[in-house]
């Protein structure tokens, strides 16, 4: 099996997993990998990612010109090109709409609480790129702001984007984001303001698996807020620590603090793009 045929098969498999896990619906989502120094292998537009075949993939250059393939490349190709231009280390890009993570993206809530060590060491903080209409030139502009410093991000009112040194690495980061979003939703609904103990946090920073080998991962704790310090006193845990310099979202209180309620509100009023994507 050649490298190209192997990559085509890998894209089919990742698309199948994304659809099976309901990270995409209908023809949504897109996947690409580098094929040598100046070519990309990319999913086609208007095709369900759960039922692709290897021959469906398009080959483009880094300017987005189609070089090979019966179908046209993804309508989100510009976003992929933006990533490859600015991240020579990236070999693969995955975009999907995982429901819980996308709910946070609709609600405008970044996944930036230091609560899970696995997330700290694989992704660090997960910011939200500003809203941009899918399939337009606005989207790569929104991604541009964060891609140099992050391997995963939410896309406001849209979905999530992950990158990696190979396709499965990029895909697993998408799994991690959705898993983290589900846990974060339960955490927020519980009303607790807990986070990893600061001493663990310090140890994590020095492990060598994250910041030492990858300066992109920012593990700068934000000073605890007074409400968090109170939580520490009551529950015997460390103050809430955030992973980056994103401004703290409005403090959530009481029953209305469940992000699901703000997600529902934002979904009703948020900009909803129409048309065919994929
Ligand atoms: Zn999308």
Structure description:
The chain is α+β, with helices and mostly antiparallel strands and 278 residues long. It has a domain at 3-190: L-fuculose-1-phosphate Aldolase, CATH 3.40.225. The chain has helices at residues 3-20, 77-86, 99-107, 117-122, 138-147, 167-190, 198-205, 226-235, 259-269, and strands spanning 30-34, 39-42, 58-61, 66-68, 92-96, 128-129, 152-155, 159-164. It has an 8-stranded mixed beta sheet, with helices on both faces. α2 packs parallel to α5 (138-147), α3 (99-107) crosses α6 (167-190) and α3 (99-107) crosses α9 (259-269). It binds zinc ion. The site of zinc ion (ZN) has 7 residues, from loops.
Oligomer: single chain
Main sheet specs = 8 strands, mixed
Distinct helical segment count: 9
User: What is the class of the domain at 3-190 in the CATH system?
Assistant: Alpha Beta
Q: Residue share in helices?
A: 25-40%
CATH superfamily of the domain at 3-190: Class II aldolase/adducin N-terminal domain
Low-confidence stretches: 203-240, 244-275
Question: Which compounds are bound in this model?
Answer: zinc ion
Give the H and E element order.
Answer: HEEEEHEHHEHEEHHHH
The secondary structure category is: alpha+beta
Alpha-carbon distance between the two ends: 28 Å
The CATH topology of the domain at 3-190 is: L-fuculose-1-phosphate Aldolase
Average pLDDT score: 79
